[in-house]
Amino acid sequence: MTMRLDYLSIFPAYFDVLDISLLGKAAVNGLVEVHAHDLRDWTHDRHRTVDDTPCGGGAGMVMKPDPWGEAFDEIIGTEPDSSVHVIFPSPSGAPFTQSAAQELSSAVRIVFCCGRYEGIDHRVIDYARSMWTVHEVSLGDYVLNGGEVAALAITEAVVRLVPGFMGNPESLAEESFSAGQDGLLEYPLFTRPVSWRGLDVPEVLMSGHHGRIAKWRRDESVRLTCERRPDLTDSDFGVPH
Ligand code: 6GU
């Protein structure tokens, strides 16, 4: 079944790239369908206002609930439907992970709600939660100006997992964070020429000895993971093997 992706944003042009990136191919193949919407289309005043001052005071502006509600009514509908996944990218969200991407890759309907300014009136999220399956997700511990770039990153992580999207399903199994790597970072990669600017491909990789190659790669994965991502090795059983 085709996966339908909707983007609600005051900068819908961010999503133009989806037509030319890898998603273009998936869209052509009928695997995904992309619709970007301008939230201001659901305003009624001459300035097409989407924000207002925060209740209780404080810096910046908050996105008003009304345009969101009307956009939801028109884009998603007014009936509860747990098969609709509504994503609110936010630095206050739960960390977005490969397993979340995996879960979303079987969704038929995903709606990205991209906030700007200090954020969206919280009732919008509560309302969406009362109707659909809501995910408040963060890409990491840093702040972006809005949810658009996060929505693009999440889209790419999800769509490449849609069955039939990747040309080579084997390349999905061996990369960082996949089950095939036991939660370790991926080992370093090399290709020809064997010698380049005085730097050589590790000899073991040219040995043709599959057992030694597998051990070298595993050792490198463990070493890199301990060095860069000790949090991934914090299981009670030590480094996964
Ligand atoms: Cl998902 N949104 C925004 N605005 N900033 C972020 C983020 C998301 N993830 C990290 N920083």
Structural class: alpha/beta
Rounded to an integer, what's the Rg over CA atoms? 22 Å
Order of strands, main sheet, comes to: 2-1-6-5-7
Distance between the termini: 37 Å
Put simply, the count of helices is: 8
Number of strands: 9
Write the H/E string, N to C: EHHEEEHEHEHEHHEEH
Q: How would you sum up the major sheet?
A: 5 strands, parallel
Strand content: 15-25%
Percent range of helical residues: 25-40%
Report mean pLDDT, rounded to a whole number.
92
Q: Cofactors and ligands present?
A: 6-chloroguanine
Which term fits the overall shape?
Answer: elongated
Q: Which spans have pLDDT < 50 for at least 5 consecutive residues? A: none
What do you see in this structure?
Residues 3-233 form the tRNA methyltransferase TRMD/TRM10-type domain. It catalyses: guanosine(37) in tRNA + S-adenosyl-L-methionine = N(1)-methylguanosine(37) in tRNA + S-adenosyl-L-homocysteine + H(+). Keywords: Cytoplasm, Methyltransferase, S-adenosyl-L-methionine, Transferase, tRNA processing. S-adenosyl-L-methionine binds at residues 115, 139-144. By secondary structure, the chain is α/β, with parallel strands linked by helices. The chain has helices at residues 17-20, 22-28, 65-75, 98-104, 122-131, 148-159, 170-173, 210-228, and strands spanning 3-9, 32-38, 51-52, 62-63, 84-95, 109-113, 133-138, 195-196, 199-200. The strands form 3 sheets. It has a 5-stranded parallel beta sheet with strand order 2-1-6-5-7, sandwiched between helices. Strands 3-4 form a two-stranded antiparallel sheet. A two-stranded antiparallel ribbon has the order 8-9. It is elongated and about 70 Å long. 24% of the residues are buried. Bound molecules: 6-chloroguanine (6GU). 6-chloroguanine binds at residues 89-91, 93, 137-140, 142-144, 146-147, 150. The site of 6-chloroguanine has 14 residues, from strand 5 and strand 7.
